[in-house]
Amino acid sequence: MNAVPEPTRVAVHEGVLELEEGLSLHFGGRLESVRVAWRLVGDPDAPVIAALGGISAGRSVVDAGDEKGWWSDIVGPGRALDTTGYRVLGIDFLGGSGGTTGPRAGQSDFPSIASQDQAEILRRVIAHLKLPPLEAIVGASYGGMVALAFAERWPELAKRIVVISAAHRPHPMATAWRSVQRAVVRFATQSGQGAEGLRLARALAMATYRSPAEFEQRFAGRATRVDGRFQFPVESYLLSRGDAYAAAYIPEAFVCLSESIDLHQVDPARIRVPTWLVAVAEDQLVPLSDMRALKRSLGGPAHLAELTSLYGHDAFLKETQALREVFTRALSPAGDVK
């Protein structure tokens, strides 16, 4: 395994793009005076890779100064996606809790957002920065959906896409789980307890991100009494993850982006850029069968890497060596799959 070099200072260029003319949305409606927060990290002369993650991810992809990136275990100098020769572009999603326009706490009328709208704001940032065609868009989970939506509409702006645990449409079972999560948040918000609703929804979501085998390994212990009642090890873990999430995110933004996942739809036949797909056999949210169907339906060259991982849907955050092999092949001079 390659050694990870000591952290070094990297060039960080960031800002907020103001779309003063507003933005017309894929599902109708319009947002006025849209702000898009972005960050570009790396050698100013290097080609650019856009890195997009789940609905909790944002513009801080890699470590920069004292700030830890959300994908810093995977992306960075010497890491699985080795950025020695690339710049990394990240954005905060539209409708989220970051610096890009999104719902305010307590706001109930923020419009529905599509993966196509996220692709549009990425395109606007690329144009604003006067970047040449991207070397790649690497997207995981929701970010993979955005990568597919981008490639469907603007194939000339990205040389290839790498899509991890995301398909051309959501699976109905995954939509079932997320629908209940959104209902919990909406009900709690109406009762003035939005943060508690988000805590419980995130706890439920965490049970879908990982595999049953991992939970069996980690949480098979006995229940203990807490405040006069039994609490199970897995329960303590899930609720602690919910607490951390509710402290950092806006309930209305969670609902907006969770819904956006379930509204996602692209036509694979219209995607003709070279596409690298990564599927995880244990992924409860994006079944292997959906990823295989996407590969068969793509209009351009495609390769599918099938991984096995205890981490299930969260493998894109954990499987360093497997992803290193995928990224090395996908980004090599011969990486345009035939």
TrEMBL record:
Annotated segments matching region Important for substrate specificity: 54-57
Compartments reported by the entry: Cytoplasm
Reactions this protein catalyses: L-homoserine + succinyl-CoA = O-succinyl-L-homoserine + CoA
Origin: domain of life: Bacteria
Top-level EC class: transferase
Listed EC numbers: 2.3.1.46
Major localization class: cytoplasm
One example GO MF annotation: homoserine O-succinyltransferase activity
Record bears the keyword RNA-binding: no
Pathway membership, UniProt: Amino-acid biosynthesis; L-methionine biosynthesis via de novo pathway; O-succinyl-L-homoserine from L-homoserine: step 1/1
Every AB hydrolase-1 domain range: 78-319
Annotated site, Important for acyl-CoA specificity, chain positions: 178
Subunit structure: Homodimer.
Family (UniProt): Belongs to the AB hydrolase superfamily. MetX family.
Protein name per Swiss-Prot or TrEMBL: Homoserine O-succinyltransferase
Source organism of the structure: Steroidobacter gossypii
Gene behind this protein: metXS
